[in-house]
TrEMBL record:
<protein>
    <recommendedName>
        <fullName>dTDP-4-dehydrorhamnose reductase</fullName>
        <ecNumber>1.1.1.133</ecNumber>
    </recommendedName>
</protein>
<keyword id="KW-0521">NADP</keyword>
<comment type="function">
    <text>Catalyzes the reduction of dTDP-6-deoxy-L-lyxo-4-hexulose to yield dTDP-L-rhamnose.</text>
</comment>
<dbReference type="GO" id="GO:0005829">
    <property type="term" value="C:cytosol"/>
</dbReference>
<comment type="similarity">
    <text>Belongs to the dTDP-4-dehydrorhamnose reductase family.</text>
</comment>
<dbReference type="GO" id="GO:0019305">
    <property type="term" value="P:dTDP-rhamnose biosynthetic process"/>
</dbReference>
<keyword id="KW-0560">Oxidoreductase</keyword>
<dbReference type="InterPro" id="IPR005913">
    <property type="entry name" value="dTDP_dehydrorham_reduct"/>
</dbReference>
<feature type="domain" description="RmlD-like substrate binding">
    <location>
        <begin position="4"/>
        <end position="283"/>
    </location>
</feature>
<dbReference type="InterPro" id="IPR029903">
    <property type="entry name" value="RmlD-like-bd"/>
</dbReference>
<dbReference type="Pfam" id="PF04321">
    <property type="entry name" value="RmlD_sub_bind"/>
</dbReference>
<dbReference type="InterPro" id="IPR036291">
    <property type="entry name" value="NAD(P)-bd_dom_sf"/>
</dbReference>
<dbReference type="GO" id="GO:0008831">
    <property type="term" value="F:dTDP-4-dehydrorhamnose reductase activity"/>
</dbReference>
<comment type="pathway">
    <text>Carbohydrate biosynthesis; dTDP-L-rhamnose biosynthesis.</text>
</comment>
Length: 285
């Protein structure tokens, strides 16, 4: 009997990474949607979709992720990041389905100097983080059958991400400046996709909140240097302070996530971000 899995936001980094692995999970049946085929901000549309389709698991990859733009477009960010998850949670509850929702390290303020655990108190410092936290809270208040996974600094061969931005800049620039006082953990979207599918495949699911990111913390500056090194791009990277690179949204200075709980509950071990980066760049360059 195949497990029926709905993937929302399927054209983004994570959704495409799940599609790439589909053939490795022959006992799963995937339904992929985007904002055109399933508007998660419309409660009636979500309810109708769930009634028409037999869904056992919903992986919500849909999100408003433009961090700076969210500051001036808070209404849309709220609809997608907070209301959407609530409507999916209501539909999952009515269908007795499990909701797997992706959240972010940006729910934290970055004041710690050691990795954030699931028991640390969120305190978002930008509109994006606030709307993502509202989404988390709406799920917790709506259904018991949920897995919320916070991840960080997602990169892949798909969509928009820091790695692809650096590669694009390398075509026209021989020197760039990147902030060196924001520290986190880059996470390969393919790795996160595997972790999610392993959770669904596990015999017993421990519902709740989890953190997942690849291991070894780094700064955006060092991440950029590694990207150019692995891609054999001759680009000089200059370190600058965040104060000298003003953005609409404030970013946490430290947002490394501790992934031990996922290892304990599901035996899913996070790997180092560099190992995947090298493979991805080999495929792109």
């Amino acid at each position: 009997m195949k497990k029926h899995i709905l993937v929302t936001g399927a054209n983004g980094q994570l959704g495409n990474s799940i599609k790439k692995q589909e053939n490795q999970w022959p006992h799963f049946r995937f339904i992929y949607t985007d904002s055109k085929t399933l508007d998660i901000t419309n409660q009636n549309v979500v309810e109708t979709f769930f009634k028409k389709n037999s869904i056992e698991y919903c992986i919500n990859c849909a999100a408003y992720t433009a961090v700076d733009q969210a500051e001036t477009d808070q209404e849309l960010a709220f609809k997608i990041n907070a209301l959407g998850p609530k409507y999916l949670a209501l539909a999952c509850k009515a269908s007795n389905a499990v909701l797997i929702h992706i959240s972010t390290d940006f729910v934290f303020d970055g004041c710690k100097t050691s990795p954030y655990t699931e028991t640390d108190t969120p305190n978002p410092i930008n509109a994006y983080g606030r709307t993502k936290l509202q989404g988390e809270n709406s799920i917790v208040q709506t259904t018991e059958q949920y897995i919320i996974i916070r991840t960080s600094w997602l990169y892949s061969e798909y969509g928009h991400n820091f790695m692809k931005t650096m590669l694009r800049l390398s075509k026209t620039r021989s020197e760039i400046s990147v902030v060196n006082d924001q520290v986190g953990s880059p996470t390969y979207a393919g790795d996160l996709a595997t972790a999610i599918l392993k959770i669904i495949d596990s015999k017993t699911i421990q519902y709740g909140l989890y953190h997942y990111s690849n291991t070894v913390e780094t700064s955006w500056y060092d991440f950029a240097k590694t990207i150019f090194k692995f891609a054999n791009k001759d680009v000089k990277v200059n370190p600058i302070a965040s104060a000298h690179y003003p953005t609409l949204a404030k970013r946490p200075n430290y947002s490394v996530l501790q992934s031990e709980k996922l290892l304990e509950q599901f035996n899913i071990k996070a790997s180092r971000w560099e190992s995947h980066l090298k493979k991805v760049l080999e495929g792109l360059t």
